[in-house]
Specification:
Strand content: over 45%
Number of domains: 1
Low-confidence stretches: 17-21
Strand order of the largest sheet: 1-2-3-4-6-7-8-9
Structural class: mainly beta
CATH class: Mainly Beta
Number of strands: 9
Distance between the termini: 36 Å
Oligomer: single chain
Length: about 190
């Protein structure tokens, strides 16, 4: 009985088998929309460029500019308007695991976050006084890649870790980032039989 069932399994696998075309490289070029959980960040948009060798690993560049926010600091009558904006530039590295129609991509990004802070007395209409600081950041996270023809939709969730910058008014650099990358996916080569 055992020999018959293994023979049936072998025949079934041979009948169901189809030639595979392994992909060697995929290049991603597109945009990213992000939302970060702190007021210094808020909504953001930028560009991404990446490669996926063999679709088992991913390496890419990501640049995002965040809208930030303007807040008031201090008590009347000496309140100050404080405007915070940020930019991030990172190298993203990850692995790709097939999961049905998606690829699950755990990974980490390394790069820099630049804080731009401008202040002026509230209601004065005077010119903004700017200061800035740049800090190293790491962004561990997870993403899922879905292909819709030549377009790939890649939602991801990351946690940004950075040192608190030396600015006149304190900012909180750490927090969650939710992003969606929309990229054109170009195949570079396939192994064909």
């Amino acid at each position: 009985m055992r020999g018959a069932s293994s023979s049936l399994l072998t025949v079934a696998l041979l009948v169901a088998a189809r030639p595979a075309a392994a992909q060697l490289w995929e290049v991603h070029l597109g945009g990213v929309a992000s939302y970060a959980s702190r007021g210094e960040f808020g909504p953001g948009a930028g560009a991404v460029l990446g490669i996926a060798p063999g679709r088992f690993a991913y390496a890419g560049l990501r640049y995002v500019v965040y809208a930030g926010a303007t807040t008031m600091s201090g008590a009347p009558p000496s309140q100050t308007d404080v405007r915070n904006r940020t930019q991030t530039f990172s190298v993203d590295l990850g692995l790709m695991f097939p999961a049905g129609r998606a690829d699950i991509m755990p990974g980490i990004g390394f790069g820099a976050v630049h804080f731009d802070q401008a202040t002026r007395p509230s209601g004065s209409g005077s010119a903004w006084q700017s200061s800035g600081a740049t800090e190293f950041m790491a962004t561990p996270g997870i993403a899922a890649e879905f292909h819709l023809g030549k377009v790939a939709l890649i939602p991801d969730l990351q946690y940004r870790l950075a040192h608190v910058p030396a600015l006149p008014y304190s900012v909180q650099p750490n927090g969650l980032i939710a992003s969606v990358r929309v990229v054109l996916a170009f195949e570079i080569n396939r192994i064909r039989q």
